[in-house]
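Researcher: Re-running this chain for the archive, since the previous output was lost when a drive failed. Same request as before.
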Amino acid sequence: MFIEFLLTSLVVVLLPGTGVIYTLSVGLDKGFNASVAAAIGCTLGIIPAAVASIVGLAALLHTSALAFQVIKFLGVAYLFYMAWKILRDDRAMDVSESRIQTGSVRIATTGILLNVLNPKLSLFFLAFLPQFISPTTSDPTASLIGLAAVFMAMTFVVFLIYGAFAAYARDYVIRRPSVMKWIKRCFAGTFGFLGAKLAVSN
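Model: Regenerated structure tokens:
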């Protein structure tokens, strides 16, 4: 059952969601060290969802339309803000040899918010983790915590790989400014699409 959990988790983590897009954009913009901060932030942002599912708070989001809608539209607004920031801020993802440094704490905080303001993450854990708990286990809470920790560790490692790939591609992009222009539009469009997708979710 644990092998099934690892394989399923790997597929989920590899899918290009909000955290992946953010880590890629940071790695491409500011290099590998900054992408590490982004990966840490996105991983830490999983903790509230994991805790919520374990203690049952995610059930509130599932049964209370108001609670879900409030968190959902905060997440939608933040994703749209990210898309707008990339398009409108001339310094956003302005790749050059001389990097404009952004604090690691600020990068990590943005990653945390992207996951915290996504109510679907809590519902995902509520539906996902219990499937891999044995009915005969004596301490299901400890098992849930263990699975959540493994999922977070896997998320961090995969996001590091994504960030390293983006940082490696950075040198290629520096030599081709027109490529960066289209990449900015793609990232902005992806954040906008994720926001729209979250907005129509029930």
